[in-house]
């Protein structure tokens, strides 16, 4: 095998390895901020229709649900009937914490 082919194969192997071992840019850590769920206030507090902006916010804040559920200020909203309905509307599962 020529040196040129060997270098190309080596570079390809390194590139492939890097692609499978690095995290994609969208896997960045989520900052848990309950104010990011403001589009969900109406549906959770008053049972109004769930807007798409609420679903987007819920999906982004999903890694924070246990933190919110453990907070006595928010736990009733997370597991309350309207909170469960909104989660269902958005096809977001509520964890058991």
From TrEMBL:
One of its GO terms (molecular function) is lipid binding. It comes from the Eukaryota. Keywords: Lipid-binding, Signal, Transport. Residues 32-97 form the Bifunctional inhibitor/plant lipid transfer protein/seed storage helical domain. InterPro entries: Bifun_inhib/LTP/seed_sf, Bifunc_inhib/LTP/seed_store, nsLTP2. The keyword Signal applies. Belongs to the plant LTP family. B11E subfamily. This is Nonspecific lipid-transfer protein.
């Amino acid at each position: 095998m020529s040196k040129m082919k060997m270098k190309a194969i080596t570079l390809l192997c390194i590139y492939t390895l890097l692609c499978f071992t690095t995290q994609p840019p969208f896997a960045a850590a989520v900052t848990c901020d309950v104010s990011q769920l403001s589009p969900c206030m109406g549906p959770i507090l008053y049972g109004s229709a769930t807007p798409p902006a609420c679903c987007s916010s819920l999906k982004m804040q999903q890694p924070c649900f246990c933190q919110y559920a453990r907070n006595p200020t928010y736990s009733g909203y997370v597991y309350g009937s309207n909170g469960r309905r909104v989660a269902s509307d958005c096809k977001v599962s509520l964890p058991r914490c």
